[in-house]
Amino acid sequence: MPDWMPRDEILNPVTDVEREAVRTAQRALSVRETGLLDDVTKASLRGIQRLLGLPVTGVLDRVTADALERLRPPGLRE
Fold it and tell me: Which residue windows are coiled coil (predicted)?
């Protein structure tokens, strides 16, 4: 699991660490960095999950975070 992902699944980010994890995912998805799992972020998560053959949930989970991390260029990985 990437260092930036604090737990297995984030449904509603409430801590600073969780919001930062969502912002990191948003950066990887090229959507506005709000730190919230808003509709745009959930739709982008579903899109990348579908594209990569992952369970389509719209949730930032460990499997999706791992996939996003692998897609990032090595120099940009955290």
Answer: none
Mean pLDDT value of segment 35-60:
96
pLDDT value of position 75: 60
Structure confidence by residue, pLDDT tens digits, 1-43: 566 666 677 888 888 989 999 999 999 999 999 999 999 999 9
The residues that bridge with 60 in the sheet, in sequence order, are 10
Q: Which CATH architecture has domain 9-76?
A: Orthogonal Bundle (1.10)
